[in-house]
Design goal:
Elements lengths: L12 E5 L2 H4 L21 H4 L9 H8 L15 H15 L3 E5 L2 H4 L10 H16 L3 E7 L5 H7 L6 H17 L5 E5 L9 H5 L11 H26 L4 E7 L3 E3 L4 H23 L5 H8 L10 H7 L4 E5 L4 E3 L23 E2 L5 E2 L1 H15 L3 E5 L17 H19 L4 E7 L19 E3 L11 E3 L1 H11 L6
Parallel strand pairs: 1-2, 1-12, 2-3, 3-4, 4-5, 5-7, 6-8, 7-11, 11-12
Antiparallel strand pairs: 9-10, 13-14
Helix pairs in contact: 4-6, 8-10, 10-13, 14-15
Keywords: Glycosidase, Hydrolase
GO biological process, one term: carbohydrate catabolic process
GO molecular function: beta-glucosidase activity
């Protein structure tokens, strides 16, 4: 008799997700080196519009280092998790977290990325964090590289465009695997690895202006290949060093629909989905899919591989697939549709059936169910939703309360669709809501784009007490976890 699945499995991993460069601060303390994120300036919305360009230039970096530019760099300060991690983890424990996704800032362990010896103060900081999590029986889910390439690897080698960076990354991974093997079971190799094609600097510490003879796509896909090889090698290492280790890849899932049922629109959407899923194809299947041969040829892209690369990819695929999901995207070959705001995908148009967030991202809970089904069918591997959330403006009332029904509605609808996918047979490991505590936005470096269940008193200019307080969504998510998603 076939067993009917009615909800999330008993050991479902509920929690939240952050990145070191968006929360830690302490960018120049205890031996930490600069990372690429430390050079990303804050640009007010009136100057940038809704579409964001996240790359910086070589000259800009050198001018900043020479003191010729006095821009604000909010990711250097974060929300001071570095000094407040015990307070924050206690709040995560009160929420009932089973898992907390965080990243290690590579430049805190190897300040220049390729140092002869690791920085003990950095290693000790993360050990302290993991011990604090263990105190509350919260599993860490650790991202090795979350938009935090050591800046010196960018300046000396042009980041992941250089094959030499593979060895530096493998050594870094081996160092942290060895140090934290008793604390961390779940690892992710690269955050949203496909973002390297949208912003080579963000995703790979690559400065495209240093390679004027090459297209951005040529640069990005070459850098991505180096990351694929590095990911496979550290997956092998994790399994050797850490008993029972589980290593996943991480994709920014951009579920794409055709605006009309015109065959050209359908083909365009299919191509966009394939280009997105190409990254998980390599990680999970261990090989480049054949459709990329034509894409590379038609776009003048040549990915240079060394002998043995294909064998490495094939031998060491990831154990599970994780991804972020915030919105879906609609595309068309026809020009009469209104463009939608979004900071990653050019050419996306508005879906008339969907509402949008304050930042123009179209809200599509059922798209998450579609994405989960597609992953399950394509790979047959365990899945993990490691980012999902609503960036919105929050208002603090006179009594200090923060009412955020819009956030509760967004998350409720997405969790409902996850449950439907599980009923359909999707093997879902867990769910970590993005930004359980307000943090500095990755794309815009704002504080006003808030995701958290926990409010942080800091504004876009860096002013505020940094005090933490609970929003209405705090109690709601606490109940969701307590009932394993039964009470939404």
């Amino acid at each position: 008799m076939t067993k009917t699945i009615t909800g999330f499995k008993p050991d479902f991993l509920w929690g939240g997700a952050t990145a070191a460069n968006q929360v830690e601060g302490a960018y120049d303390l205890d031996g930490k080196g600069l990372s690429t994120a430390d050079m990303v300036p804050y640009i007010p919305k009136e100057k940038r519009g809704l579409n964001v360009k996240m790359d910086v230039t070589s000259q800009y970096i050198e001018d900043v280092l020479a003191g010729k530019i006095d821009d604000r760099f909010p990711k250097r300060d974060g929300i001071d998790f570095y000094h407040r991690y015990k307070e924050d983890i206690a709040l995560f424990a009160e929420l009932g977290f089973k898992v907390f996704r965080l990243s290690i800032n590579w430049a805190r362990i190897f300040p220049n990325g390729n140092d002869a010896e690791p920085n003990e103060a950095g290693l000790q900081f993360y050990e302290n964090v993991f011990k604090e999590l263990k105190k509350y029986d919260i599993e860490p889910l650790v991202t090795l590289s979350h938009y935090e390439t050591p800046l010196e690897l960018t300046r000396k080698f042009n980041g992941w465009y250089s094959r030499e960076v593979i060895d530096f990354y493998v050594r870094y991974a081996e160092t942290v695997f060895t140090r934290y093997k008793d604390y961390v079971k779940y690892w992710l190799t690269f955050n949203e690895i496909n973002v390297i094609t949208h912003s080579p600097y963000t995703g790979g510490g690559v400065l495209i202006d240093r390679l004027p003879e090459k297209t951005s796509d040529q640069i990005a896909y070459q850098a991505a290949h180096h990351q694929f090889v590095a990911s496979a090698l550290v997956t092998k290492l994790a399994h050797e060093i850490i008993p029972g280790a589980q290593v996943g890849c991480m994709l920014a899932r951009m579920q794409t629909y055709p605006v009309t049922n015109h065959p050209d629109d359908v083909l365009k959407a299919q191509r966009m989905n394939d280009l997105n899923l190409f990254f998980t194809d390599v990680h999970a299947k261990g090989e480049y899919p054949s459709f990329m041969n034509r894409y590379f040829a038609e776009n003048g892209i040549e990915v240079i591989k060394e002998r043995g690369d294909d064998e490495i990819l094939k031998q060491y695929p990831v154990d599970f697939i994780s991804f972020s999901y915030y919105m879906s995207i609609s595309v068309t070959t026809h020009g009469e549709f209104e463009a939608t705001a979004g900071n990653l995908v050019e050419g996306a148009v508005k879906n008339q059936y969907l509402e949008s967030s304050d930042w123009g991202w179209q809200i599509d809970p059922k798209g998450l169910r579609v994405a989960l089904q597609d992953f399950q069918t394509r790979y047959g591997k365990p899945l993990f939703v490691v980012e999902n959330g609503l960036g919105a403006y929050d208002t603090v009332e006179e009594d200090g309360s923060i009412h955020d029904p819009y956030r509760i509605d967004y998350l409720r609808q997405h969790i409902e669709q996850m449950k439907e996918a599980v009923k359909d047979g999707v093997d879902l490991m867990g769910y970590t809501a993005w930004g359980p505590i307000d943090l500095v936005s990755m794309s815009t470096s704002e504080m006003s784009k808030r995701y958290g269940f926990i409010y942080v008193d800091q504004d876009d200019d860096g002013n505020g007490t940094l005090n933490r307080s609970k929003k209405d969504s705090f109690a709601w998510y606490q109940q969701v976890i307590e009932t394993n998603g039964e009470e939404l």
